[in-house]
Amino acid sequence: MESFMKQLTINLILLLLATHWLPAQSPVSTQEKNYFKWLRAAFDEQQAYGTVAYVEQRWRLAGNRGFNESIFYVEKILQQAGFVHDSTGRSKAPLTYRIEKRPLKHPTWEPLDAQLYLIGETQPLLQFKTNRNMIPVNAGTANVTAELVYVGKGSDKEMDSADVTGKIVLGETGIAGLYNAAVKRGALGAIAYSMPQYTQPGKYQHSIQFQGIGRDTVPNRCALLVHYAAKEKLKAALAKAPVQVRAVVKTSMYPSEELTLVANVQGASHRQERFVFSAHVQEPGANDNASGVGCLAEMARITAQLVRNKKFKPKRSITFLWGDEIISTRRYIQDDSVRAKGIKWGLSLDMVGEDTKKTGGTFLIEKMPDPSAVWTRGEEKHTEWGGSPLKEEALFPHYFNDLLLNRCLYEAAGTGWVVKTNPYEGGSDHTPFLQAKIPGLLMWHFTDVFYHTDGDRLDKVSAAEMKHVGVSALATAFLLTGARQQTAIALINDIKANAIQRLQTELALSKAAVQQGGDKETEKHILQVWTDWYIKALATTHDIAVAGHREKINKVIAEAQQQVREKLAACLQQL
After folding, report:
1. Is-above-0.85 flag for pTM?
2. Are 499 and 564 in contact (CB under 8 A)?
3. What is residue 26's predicted lDDT score, i.e. its pLDDT?
């Protein structure tokens, strides 16, 4: 009976946690309510969706035709919105843009067409027009007919035991290693199947995730990717008799230049301080990342509209950036040390438009490293994309985590929009900000069963989802680029409330852990680390207000920090 009651208590604690693991909906000032009102009225989700429809038709890699056409499409949106071209980046006009051009070190790559035939059948087993990820990035042009040989996982032992010379190998592994091992042994090419389990290949049997190989300059060697259904058919045929296949691949490689599109809304008084948005253009998907491109283009358009109508006059600058993932954002930070010092916040939009009923993905804010990245427990969890525990020294205390989350929760209230967070994992345009010690966050969706697959098309995109993301992101930027003292104080009190609520949540988790035999000192340490993180995060709030009485703001910060310390003391007594 005692054991039953103990487990019942633990279950009740965990049930309670599930109802309040996120911060409560934040009250907002009249100024912020106006921002949301204006943004909801101005954001045209159908226009954003139209941009996604244009971009997602194109297989985008830095320098190739699809990438450049997407950049120029957004440029036209900026021009129509009132942004004026400024090649130097020194114009004092309120709305400016420029396209930065840099020669690529290596030729860009573009897929054109492909078919895979099973000899003896009239219709292709696979074709590019329905599976546009079947050609690995950097694959060359080929027209090869040869016997197919199965090599399992493509290990050295499996490759060496098979007679692959003059043949095409089929392996269940990544294409890069399989292809290299095959051609090294005299094969004419390789066909690979490799899909992570979260894509549910048994259910979605016709999806292919894009992969790449090293640049292939040897003519008439084939490299192809197949989906689950094609792989199973090939294996079944091989089990009955020798099989021949024909692989037809058409690609193009050519010298080009890398384009980065940068648009600026100049701040009225603190123009060197800025909020930077980034959305990467490359990758072939609709959600990844045509949705980020389209959402950010609409955000830039309506920001310009509100500035021109004199409803919004930021004191700090806002920058919108479209380019090559991580590379363009990192360069923007590193190329100008003076500019970099003024970047106060970075926010990446990546996979922001998902129709969650179709993709299975949930909207997420990937947080900067907080203690949930060290101790991932309760409602906190990493995505299937992948995350591993961080060390305490990697923590990045800052108010930006909670401030953005509170804005999203306000947007979500009463709409049915689901907002969640995940501990830091990295891998998108927020990473360069954090590496430069600049607060950086990611707005995205996961787990997406169509992630990086040719199933990621326009029908998986939700215009309404993009609007929720765009409105929340811009409301956050508007607040931070024009915050008055009163607004800053309200936001500080928001963060304090988040801190106290987080400690209450962690206390419940620690109680459950101790009841299950966990070490009490370890649980006390977790509570202490969370407290320290929020104490430091509150200290960073001194930079929110553009102007105001610093002494008054510092007093509010100190009072908030003291209340968090008092909450810790109460928690430790209850543990």
Report:
1. yes
2. yes
3. 54
